Amino acid sequence: MHIPDGFLSTPVWATLDAAALPSVVVIARRAQRGFDESRIPLLGVMGAFVFAAQMINFPVGVGTTGHLVGGALLAYLLGPGAASVVMTSILIIQALVFQDGGLLALGANVTNMAIFGVLAGYLPYYLWGGGRWRRVSIFAGGVLSVLTSAALALSELLISGVKMPATVLGISSLLFLVSAILEGAITLAVVQALEGIRPGFVRKPKASPALGVAAILLATVGVLLASTAPDGIWKLAMTTGIAGHARSLFSTPFSGYELSFLQTPWLRKASAGLAGLALIYGACLLIGRAAARNRSV
Amino acid sequence: MQPALLDRWSRQASILHRRDPRAKIAAALVFLVVVATAQPALLPVSAGLFLFLCAGLVVARLPLGGALLRAGIVLPFTLTFAAICWMAGDPWRGVSLILKSYLSALAVLLMVSTTPLPGLLRGFERIGAPRFLLMVSQFLYRYLFVITEQAQHMSKAAACRGGMRFRAAAGALAVLFARSYSQAEDIHRAMLSRGFEGRFHGPEDTRFRAADALFAAAACCAPLLLRLVIERVAA
User: What's the whole-model pTM score?
Assistant: First the structure.
């Protein structure tokens, strides 16, 4: 989902532009230092590949199709830094040539998709990609990258004051969830097919302290964003009935005494946001496990 | 494909086409900020800015109708959100979304269709954007059509065989990836053998002339003044 110009309020786009520009410069520097200049054509062609991948439709159900978004897949194949660079240049070309996403909103789109989308996609693979949970983590990465981008875009729109009724928010979240699961399935299927063609293509995750820091940063920003726009998430939880269960679940063990620290508004909001994120994360892992089991049969 | 149209437009000749890319980038950015921050008297202000862009299109000798239609690419997305805002009881914001996103898209279109993309990216680089990123973008644009065509062939072939199942589509993507990967290696080798040394030599860098400075000053001030005057009159 590419945000066009005119949607975000001035503080939002200005902040995100200001944040995205130096991060992109740093990531580009790191990505450039990490390998020789032979990677310039490689990264460019990979960006063209992600564009072209949209031509190949994946049949889902009757009559509907979906296509690859690509952030997580690129992170597994090229490493997260290079994947961020590729996604950023895709967004640049889309904003300039295809009028898909705005130029002032480029910072927002880069933050959503090229930085946090890619990082969120790489995180599960980085944590569990080496072991028994490899397939699950690949699937979860695809799901998480789309979900993170979508959640960030929605919260930016909400912060900018674009009003969305709870029903619309619920429907769009559901659509995002479906496309996220699809992205996870496509990513996993493509990785497996690729390993069949040419083993050793997919990089093993390697430990790097920077990524750990980035992961923590990601979680923090996610929680903060979720807590600044908790109304949407909260309403969503209300409508789906999760909130009721969650409240009884939370309050039962503590029913004897009042949870005074939960009364602080920002803390309550932050914990609601955190709970939402944890919920999404857990759901991704469970679904991923099930999907991986089906696939391996 | 549609972008080919943009390539044709950007290689025509006019006063606007001849200006230095940096001047056009500055003008476009100022215009975008003016649009994004417009609040009071939005309707007359956007009408004025719209006429300003139309004048730019005429000066650039671009087909007016075609360009106005092309900028309408943003409308499906925007109209959806405008409808949502209307449902939420905030129709005014819906109108402002439509006006602002359309004007911004038209402004970017005017910039892109008067500057060939290599020149434009070079302009961004000379303003200070990271070179690595812009080179990757240039490569992406260069090979976009090559690889998209391969993908189109694949999906057409699959359609001839009776459609693609999920697994087959994943296999096709994997093949496309492996093929583009080795293609990238070949491209790099070919570049090295032609003496590639880490940077592109595009069309020779234009000097920033007095005319460019004049254009930049005029094109930056005009939308600003236009907005201020219209807001004052409307108030």
Answer: 0.81
